[in-house]
Amino acid sequence: MTTITLPALPYAYDALEPHISKETLEFHHDKHHQTYVTNLNNLIKETELEGKTLEEIITASAGDTSKAGIFNNAAQVWNHTFYWNSLTPNGGGKPTGAIAVKIDEAFGSYEKFAEEFANAAATQFGSGWAWLVADEINGNLSILKTANADTPLAHGKIAVLTIDVWEHAYYIDFRNARPKYIATFLESLVNWDYANAKLAGQEAGVEK
Ligand code: MN3
What we know:
Blueprint lengths: L21 H23 L9 H8 L6 H19 L11 H10 L2 H14 L4 E8 L5 E7 L9 E8 L6 H4 L3 H12 L2 H13 L4
Antiparallel strand pairs: 1-2, 1-3
Helix pairs in contact: 1-3, 2-3, 5-7
Manganese (III) ion binds next to helix 1.
């Protein structure tokens, strides 16, 4: 039976230095992300969800309190893979391409988007995520923050970009300074090529 596997990081462990250290990525990917994968495989073993795709497992368990453990681990596997792809060495700054146009349409300017995104990430109380998402129906961009493992898939939204604001994402490199981690993400790490690819995939599915 197929199991859920941990994808490799899309870059070397030291590729995001000096912003995010090799030590952070070793713990975050090899320990935290791996643990969600291991837990999920144990939880779905010999159930009707064994052999399903990660997206199918998330959709099937969202909102079902009897499957909260499955949802939390499945969503965290998905969220982390999305987060690794949202980061790139020498990234960040103003976007180019279609995402730049859509951000101006939705927020007025890149600066306004960056302010709203940073505010959502900073004010997510406790553990969670901040996202740039596209609406499944009309493709409009908006900012979403989710608590703990919660994910845009469970809310009819297409993820375009995310930042992990669980403390394990930044404590080694930034200690308690979450706002500094968020500013560094926006200035130096955002993978706008990935966001553009996600947007293009989403628009392909929207009826004009
Ligand atoms: Mn994390």
